[in-house]
Design goal:
With about 190 residues, this protein is of the alpha+beta class. Helices cover about 45% and strands about 15% of the residues. It has three domains: about 40 residues, no CATH class; about 50 residues, no CATH class; about 70 residues, no CATH class. It has seven helices and six strands, in the order H-H-H-E-E-E-E-H-E-H-H-H-E.
Length: about 190
């Protein structure tokens, strides 16, 4: 397992996984013993993520979306910021509660399983194609289009995405997203 994959599996930033493992590169391969030691050290920490709290991936149509919320503990306004169309956060955290309360229609929750309904899957494909093929000749936009698409995938899925992109192009990655992912709107999450 690579350091980056460990970070994904544990739901933590790559930098944190690099600190836990003592490795300076996210692509460094870890032995089973190194993985086990890192997990044990992480679980010994007194953090919400270490305690196994659920992490949700919010996905926005706006690349660097920002939402203002009021921290209930301090009463101070704070900004919750998306980065590259995505915002992973723990359920119940300030960021999570702020995004959920916003009910913004251009924010969705990524779910790692496909739509069951064929009509929903078809609508998902149409949404992706509409947002990705933004060039003047309906080619994929490098930042806006591909960034929007790639934000659906975890770091641990990067190899599969890259292989699909090389073999089948952008349309193949769209198909991969439709086969592996779906989303829920903010008003459906409970």
């Amino acid at each position: 397992m690579k350091v980056g994959d460990l970070a994904d599996q544990m739901g933590i930033p790559v930098k944190d996984a690099m600190v836990l493992t003592g490795k300076s590169n996210q692509n460094t391969i870890l032995s089973e013993e190194e993985v086990e030691k890192a997990v044990q050290e992480y679980q010994a920490q007194d953090t919400p993520a270490a305690k196994g709290e659920k992490v949700v991936l919010f996905w926005s149509e706006v690349m660097n979306h920002a939402i203002v919320g009021v921290d209930p503990k301090t009463g101070v306004q704070q900004i919750v910021r998306f980065e590259n169309f995505r915002l992973p956060c723990k359920v119940g955290s300030f960021s999570y509660n702020t995004v959920m309360a916003s009910k913004e229609q251009d924010i969705r929750i990524v779910v790692d399983k496909p739509f069951r309904d064929v009509g929903d899957a078809k609508a998902f494909r149409a949404l992706l194609e509409d947002k990705i093929y933004t060039g003047p000749n309906r080619e994929a936009g490098a930042v806006r289009g591909m960034g929007f698409l790639l934000a659906l995938f975890k770091r641990s899925e990067n190899d599969e995405v890259a292989k699909t992109l090389q073999q089948h192009g952008v349309a193949g990655v769209i198909e991969l997203a439709v086969r592996l992912k779906h989303f829920e709107t903010l008003d459906k999450e409970g």
